[in-house]
């Protein structure tokens, strides 16, 4: 599973953010590692220097073998909470998709 992390110029990225997201994705999607080929994570501060509640956005796009990619988005007040929220949503979406695939 490949994990790509992108961020806008308002977010301090670097190796620590990359490692955090990679470790989280491998933990969250561990049960589906044979089916997930790639996860793209986009992190942005929508208000920039203005601040504000829930202005940090994390969008995750996941690609499962043989299916079209799909994405989820989560907004929160800090970057780790936004990433964690999106990871929770992506886990539920992947779980439902794999379950439907098995039932078909």
Primary descriptors:
alpha+beta, four-stranded mixed β-sheet, 104 residues, 4 strands
Number of distinct helices: 2
| Largest sheet entry | 4 strands, mixed
C-alpha geometry: elongated
Number of strand segments: 4
Order of helices and strands: EHEEEH
Q: What is the helix fraction of residues, given as a range?
A: 25-40%
Strand order of the largest sheet: 1-2-3-4
Report the average pLDDT across residues: 90
Radius of gyration: 14 Å
Class derived from helix and strand content = alpha+beta
Query: How much of the sequence is in beta strands?
Result: 25-35%
The end-to-end distance, rounded to whole angstroms, is: 25 Å
- Which stretches are low in confidence, meaning pLDDT under 50 for 5 or more residues running? none
Provide a descriptive summary of the structure in words.
The structure is a single chain. The chain is of the alpha+beta class and 104 residues long. It has helices at 14-28, 79-103; strands spanning 2-7, 36-45, 56-64, 70-76. The chain has a four-stranded mixed beta sheet with strand order 1-2-3-4. The protein is elongated.
